[in-house]
Inverse folding.
């Protein structure tokens, strides 16, 4: 393969603004990233960070009246920003597929799981009902669903959470998409089932060759699953880079503080958890400078200007500290 | 599934029993009105009165009277009217029933089709002038009294423009049995159908639109769009199918009450001798046996319609089938 | 050894779920929490941890068994007799927003229990008493005094949870049952609230029953841990003992399944367990974990294990407990 081939997805300065109470509020602010073939990119952030909005924009699913999406998102060389709905429809489900947080509510309750997977297969190709079902059953089997023929005939509420999410992934993969967007795919699941689903997502890359955009709030999920990580805070990129580097040597104080605030499962218990004071600003009340400055222990005068995203080693960091020669300390990794 | 059906049937019978007892007590056990004299008629000889008393068991305790009454109503079907002596009330109801059933079924077909079309179209074009126009139209339909609309229709089609090419096909007021002349039946009823349906088209299209708009925000609707389905398919297969619950339960109740006599105004305006009119006349004359018969008839319909709606639920929503919702 | 503050004895909780089926949410649960302890209740969905929390406070009435609060059997007490005891036990819920009436100001919401209940001398509290207590409570949970005049929707999730905690503490309870109090919060806020819970315990000498699915949070806050699976406790003991060297294979799997925010150099981990939690309507016979247990033997399929001490002070319900690695 050509090493200089354009990436599968190249997002540049994606900005999404929605009208709230009569004025435009920027939800996602100049987000740029690329996603290569067979790559898993994690987008981490808290609620209101704009991570889900980014995903919906890539799917053309933002239909709030008056929404303004600018910038560029090139998928296989094709511009997604401003793409008419009709053209989006041929991409959705076939080229770009999406799985959602709660597999219970994400399936239509009145049809069997198999019917819904058949429907997607038949929406994107001339396939007979019978052939579609054969493919559905094979897909379910591939996703580790026991007795797939029987499960295909069940209604969503009759399945366990884990089976439902496997069926959801089977449906997303039914047309062999090159890009799978997974929005908090394990948040509604129990931790032992989450481990199974994450294992499945990692396997997909090997067996289906799909690239995955994994959106989550859980740093643990990212560490375990993603090749590269992008940390969003308040609609902007705080930091991005290879997952190993980001976790071993977080360059943005937000990333570092977020990692520190997770109680450890091994080793000594801290008397107090290092916590981040305050809470993320609402999109309409974001500060002019660095959005994290009001909660940051390192905040100083230079933070009054929004810091650009600058490379530092293998990472890109939107913080003035590296430029000032004051890198954050590496984390002591205990596993 | 079979168990559910059986249980439902049992409940239906129980409810019917309850209603019949209630109606019986209200009309026959109220003090002051001696049913014997009423049934025997004015100036009846003491022998006749005695015969009636024995026949109906009015000299026996209430439970026996009840059983006799039910027997006369459902088994021997020889209950006679107070007013038109000798007139058997059960055949009278059975004569009126096809008129009402014809009227209401036709209207129901119209209002279901029209309101599904209007509601879905309005939801699909939400916020546009089409949506606003359709909903305004629905509101107008709800506000127009059915007898006024009927009178206006009669005025236009029966007298004023009857001889114009537009309405010359409209027959005179009244009912034509389907078995006698299907085309005549259709012609006689098409204007009453539309008149009766207008109100319900208004209500149902607005209800359906609201449900469809609410369902738009559901996760599964987003999934359906993410699958790359066409907007029409998303709306019809995923939205409409899941928002039919309110629609169906409303329909069951409205259909039943109309068949049970609620279409009175339409029947009167269009000169249709239906159940509503029959009940109205019976109430006016205090014709107790006839009231008993019509009330029981309409109760049967309401209860059966409810049972049918519950069955439809089972068909529509698999979660109900599993006893989860 | 001090007497337990709250004790559950062979609690059973059954719900009819139609068609003659019975969901056994709790199947003979016994535990005791001593004053000053923090008992963490962990387990996956359907394990009965929330039901147990509600039964302990008699917010739900168990089908069988006994709940003893501070020496009083409260299992069957009528609501009238229970009310004075309720001052001593309070609950904090997961959804910080749903538990606050959106149309009332924070001051009214926190003051409500103070108005309803009489003070220690059986007197109705005066407006001055209440105002002083409100000020004290806001300080305690780290909210500005200005919060009193505002409405719930004006606060973030973390602040709303502080309001809920202030309300729970208004009557100076001795026991607080917290049901997933941080799981709906953002990660950066979770740590604040966990710290707050720990500070309050130190300052007020509180006893907690802390229900959560997040093992790391439970480990941080708990002195003892009870691991539940399908309505029963499978392991119970000191937090450090249980979470560092689990004896029950389910506890071990639960710990192994937690994704840690550390990139391990040795590549992908295999998921520790296969399949889902079975339905609590038809739990497996024998050991209820045997369908997913990596070390299940024939005996486990028929013979239900009981809780017993493997020799280090904890209790474990397993025929083949894991050797302690410590």
């Amino acid at each position: 393969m050509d090493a200089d081939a354009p990436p599968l997805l190249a997002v540049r300065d994606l900005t999404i603004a929605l009208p709230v109470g009569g004025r435009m509020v920027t939800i996602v602010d100049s987000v740029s990233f690329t996603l290569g073939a067979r790559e898993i990119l994690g987008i981490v952030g808290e609620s209101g960070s704009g991570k889900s909005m980014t995903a919906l924009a890539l799917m053309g699913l933002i239909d709030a009246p008056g929404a303004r999406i600018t910038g560029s998102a090139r998928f296989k060389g094709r511009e997604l920003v401003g793409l008419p709905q009709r053209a989006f429809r041929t991409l959705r489900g076939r080229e770009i597929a999406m799985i959602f947080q709660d597999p219970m509510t994400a399936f239509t309750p009145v049809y069997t799981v198999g019917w819904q997977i058949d429907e997607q297969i038949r929406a994107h190709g001339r396939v007979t009902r019978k052939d579609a079902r054969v493919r559905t059953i094979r897909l379910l089997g591939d996703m580790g669903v026991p007795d797939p023929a029987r499960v295909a005939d069940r209604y969503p509420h009759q399945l366990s959470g884990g089976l439902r999410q496997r069926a959801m992934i089977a449906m997303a993969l039914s047309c062999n998409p090159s890009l799978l967007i997974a929005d908090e795919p394990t948040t509604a699941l129990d931790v032992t089932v989450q481990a199974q689903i994450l294992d499945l997502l990692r396997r997909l890359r090997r067996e289906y060759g799909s690239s995955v955009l994994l959106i989550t709030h859980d740093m643990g999920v990212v560490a375990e699953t993603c090749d590269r990580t992008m940390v969003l805070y308040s609609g902007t990129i705080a930091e991005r880079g290879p997952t190993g580097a980001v976790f071993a040597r977080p360059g943005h104080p937000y990333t570092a503080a977020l990692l520190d605030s997770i109680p450890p499962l091994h080793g000594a218990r801290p008397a107090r958890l290092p916590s981040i004071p305050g809470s993320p600003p609402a999109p309409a009340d974001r500060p002019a400078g660095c959005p994290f400055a009001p909660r940051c222990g390192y905040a100083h005068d230079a933070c009054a200007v929004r810091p650009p995203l600058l490379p530092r080693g293998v990472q890109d960091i939107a913080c003035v500290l590296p430029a000032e020669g004051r890198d954050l300390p590496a984390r002591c990794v205990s596993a | 599934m079979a168990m559910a059906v059986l249980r439902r049937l049992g409940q239906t019978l129980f409810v019917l029993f309850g209603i019949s007892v209630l109606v019986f007590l209200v009309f026959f056990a109220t003090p002051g009105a001696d049913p014997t004299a009423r049934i025997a008629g004015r100036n009846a000889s003491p022998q006749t009165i005695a015969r009636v008393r024995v026949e109906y068991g009015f000299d026996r305790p209430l439970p026996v009277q009840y059983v006799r009454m039910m027997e006369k109503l459902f088994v021997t079907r020889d209950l006679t009217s107070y007013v038109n002596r000798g007139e058997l009330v059960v055949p009278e109801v059975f004569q009126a029933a096809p008129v009402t059933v014809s009227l209401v079924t036709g209207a129901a077909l119209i209002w279901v089709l029209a309101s599904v079309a209007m509601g879905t179209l309005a939801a699909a074009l939400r916020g546009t002038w089409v949506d606003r126009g359709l909903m305004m139209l629905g509101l107008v339909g709800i506000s127009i009294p059915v007898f006024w609309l009927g009178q206006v229709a009669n005025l236009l089609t029966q007298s004023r423009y009857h001889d114009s090419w537009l309405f010359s096909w409209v027959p005179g007021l009244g009912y034509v049995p389907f078995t006698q002349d299907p085309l005549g039946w259709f012609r006689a009823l098409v204007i009453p159908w539309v008149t009766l349906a207008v109100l319900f088209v208004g209500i149902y299209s607005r209800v359906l639109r609201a449900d469809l708009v609410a369902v738009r925000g559901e996760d599964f609707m987003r999934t359906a769009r993410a699958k790359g389905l066409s907007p029409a398919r998303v709306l019809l297969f995923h939205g409409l199918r899941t928002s039919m619950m309110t629609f169906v339960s409303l329909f069951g109740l409205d259909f039943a009450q109309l068949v049970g006599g609620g279409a009175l105004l339409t029947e009167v305006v269009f000169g249709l001798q239906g159940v509503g009119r029959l009940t109205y006349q019976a109430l006016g004359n205090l014709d107790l046996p006839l009231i008993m018969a019509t009330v029981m008839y309409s109760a049967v319909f309401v209860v059966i319609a409810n049972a049918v709606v519950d069955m439809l639920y089972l068909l529509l929503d698999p979660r109900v089938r599993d006893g989860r919702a | 050894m001090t007497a337990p503050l709250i004790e559950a004895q062979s609690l059973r909780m059954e719900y009819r779920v139609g068609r003659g089926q019975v969901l056994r949410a709790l199947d003979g649960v016994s535990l005791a929490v001593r004053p000053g302890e923090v008992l963490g209740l962990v387990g996956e969905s359907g394990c009965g941890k929330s039901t147990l929390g509600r039964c302990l406070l008699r917010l739900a009435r168990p089908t069988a068994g006994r709940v003893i609060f501070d020496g009083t059997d409260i299992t069957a007490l009528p609501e009238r007799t229970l009310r004075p005891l309720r001052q001593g036990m309070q609950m904090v819920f997961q959804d910080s927003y749903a538990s606050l009436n959106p149309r009332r100001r924070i001051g009214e919401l926190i003051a409500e229990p103070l108005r309803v209940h009489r003070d220690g001398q059986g007197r109705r509290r005066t407006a001055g008493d209440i105002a002083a207590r409100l000020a004290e409570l806001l300080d305690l949970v780290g909210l500005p005094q200005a919060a009193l005049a505002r409405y719930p929707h004006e606060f973030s999730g973390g602040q709303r949870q502080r309001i809920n905690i202030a309300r729970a503490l208004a009557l100076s309870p001795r026991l607080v049952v917290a049901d997933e109090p941080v799981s709906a919060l953002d990660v950066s806020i979770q740590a604040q609230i966990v710290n707050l819970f720990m500070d309050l315990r130190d300052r007020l000498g509180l006893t907690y029953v802390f229900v959560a699915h997040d093992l790391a949070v439970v480990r941080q806050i708990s002195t003892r841990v009870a691991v539940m699976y399908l309505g029963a406790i499978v392991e119970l003991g000191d937090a450090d003992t249980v979470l560092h060297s689990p004896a029950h294979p389910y506890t071990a799997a639960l710990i192994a399944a937690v994704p840690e925010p550390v990139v391990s150099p040795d590549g992908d981990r295999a998921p520790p367990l296969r399949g889902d939690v079975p339905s609590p309507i038809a739990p497996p016979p024998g050991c209820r974990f045997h369908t997913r247990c990596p070390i299940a033997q024939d005996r486990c399929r028929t013979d239900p294990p009981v809780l017993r001490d493997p020799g280090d002070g904890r209790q474990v319900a397993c025929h083949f407990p894991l050797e302690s690695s410590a």
Q: What stands out?
A: The domain at 1-88+222-260+267-326 of chain C is CATH 3.40.50.300 (Rossmann fold). The mean pLDDT of chain C is 91. The longest strand of chain C covers residues 22-33. The CA atoms of residues 11 and 65 of chain C lie 4 Å apart.
